[in-house]
Amino acid sequence: MSRAPRIRASQPPGTGPGLSLGDTVRFGGHTYTVSVLQGHRVSMEPREEGVDAVTCLLATVVAAGDFAVLDRLDHPQELHQLPYRKGEFEALPAHVRSQALEWEHHVKQVLHRQSPNVPATTAPWPEYDPALHTLQERYEAKARQLRALGRDVSAATVERRCRAWRAQGVMGLVDGRRTRGASPYGRTDPRVVALLWDVLDAEAKSGESAGTAQRLWERLEGAVDERYRRELDDPLERARLRVPRSTFYKLLQRLGISVDDVAGPTARRVAGHNRPAPPYTPTVARVPGELVQIDTTGLDILAIGDDGRPTPVEATIAIDIATRSIIGEMIVPRQTGDGPRGARLGGRATRALDAVFTIAQALAPVPGRPGWSPLTLMDGSDLPYEELLATDPRMEGAAARPVIRPQTVVIDHGRVYTGSVFSSACAELGIEVRHARTRTPTDKAVVERAMRTIKTKFSQHVAGHTARKLELRGKGVDKQPLWTVNQLQEMFSEWVTLQWQQTPQGGLRSPYTPGLILAPNQMYAAAVSLAGYRALPQTPGDNRKLLPAQWVTVTRKGFQINNRTYSLGDALIPFRRPSGITGRRGKWEARYNPYEPDVAWLYNHRAEEGQDPWVEVPFVFRRLIDDPWTERVWEQATAAHVAAGGSIRDERAIARAVNELRERARRGHAPARTVVPASFQGRKLETAAPRREPLGDLPAINPATITPYRSLDGPAADLFVDPHPPKKAAHPPDDVLAALDWDISGLDGFPPYGPEDLGPDEGRAEQ
Question: Is 132 helix (H, G, I), strand (E, B) or coil?
């Protein structure tokens, strides 16, 4: 005969086994009867002679090695701890609780041999005595008793109730219809709800114009016809999958989708459908760099673009979760190009390389800028400057921003981050890339909230603020004086250093004094003392690996990247043979910076140990362009040249067009203007090898060892007498050019051209 396990339904989880008055327990080698329970104390009377009564803590009793609750035959009982659902039970209606408690009375009588609150020493009823009847016989006895009271109950029902009580306690005796939660979308089939979300996502991605809820319902019906064509042949399935129009509007309301939002902005016509349910779980990181979130969004600011016209800008920031420090930021213009979709020229927005530059900023200190406030320098900030400087000499003269190397970066599903450029750069740096889940804003909640703070604390105080909605925008914003993109970038970098990094934030608490609210720099100072800091500077070769890669074939004329020829004469002879990389059909790896495309770097995979594998190769016509330029300027000049009837292969003419664009930027509307407005060139990435100082190895000069030169014997005027006075007529330019030695194939950036290859305006010194 099996013994029923002993169960304490009223015991909260985590408190250990429970006791009741009248229980027989074994403790300290003796048996006792529980006589008093008062809070955490228990009093027990001995059942043996010569043993004293015991009063002690309940935790002491149940923690004893020989502790056990004994049954009537002095056998240890198995203890089951049930989930504590008292609050949920008391939230039910009174009549439901009364019915459940009544059933608990009967269940305990069957399983415990006694009704509740009856001392264990009382003899059980004969029909429920385990010494006389099996558990199944007790089930049948209870069923007969209840049927005698006029209730239609079988032995199987009693058994089912007892099992439910064992598993869930008193909540297992409650009618399941009373505890079943309501569906968030009513009685609508979940397959229809999933299709509705798919239709909404498709509309958002397509970028089409807004429509009405009627159109959304019609598209949902079409999606059901396409997805469940076979199921619709069944009348029952058709009734589940077909949603009447009136039910459809109720479904939208249940999902938090309003009709106004369906006909509203195209980007997202859903009102808070992806808002997580409270309580919210914060994103936690314990050491700097453990988790970094990166995102791109518009700044609600107009700036002056490279073409001199107002253009909106967008910002990309990377924020460290542990310290809330902005470890990288970049502002770029956002312009729509001309031409059909997929073949537009002149457009500009954040690219994958901009995101790479944002991450690369985190690997090196940000240098202090001339004109910045003295409070932006690290040596006077909350950062441990002396300790960091002793470890990393690059900290000298740096701004008050920490150097944090990311370990994991959380990104969204935008093209900027999902491409191979960003992922390969992170793999090169040893950074793990983690994708945020769709429709889950909590995965990137910190950077999203940081962007909102930037708009309220920075953007609205800058000239050219456009507000977040068109109806809130002031009149004539594009007519007022605006900042250039480069100036805006400098202002934003200073604001991050001076305001963001030094302002206390409620989410940052001191690990030593949790009640103390810290600023990001203070939090980093506290965290770096625990996690430590190690300088890992990037070499120019390491930075070149972060640039976009092009696989090129090197010929006698060099190689081409985006309609530009790069050549270095005989220095490229080793690259004219196949590289041996079969996956790239023998081509060579080349890297270039789109913001400084005047040079490219070839990578020699066959370089010997100790030999620099990188070869810097200049653009052959770079000396025709006087001012700094970017690949975007090259694309604009190419488009203008082709539109005028020129050939796209005429690199020399395109280079002159680039120089003319930069000259036009110099002149502007004022003829006397001499300063060239700098074009947008992104963030600086050190890719050029450091140049060696020719006199750097000379010892320091001791003035005491210098011998003075003797005094002049003659008048000083005789020293400047020209023995060859100028002639009346200068040499013709053609004679001068003919007399020059044109063997300049070895010079940096010049192909082996002669004077006959130059145009009428080339080869002459600028007047």
Answer: coil
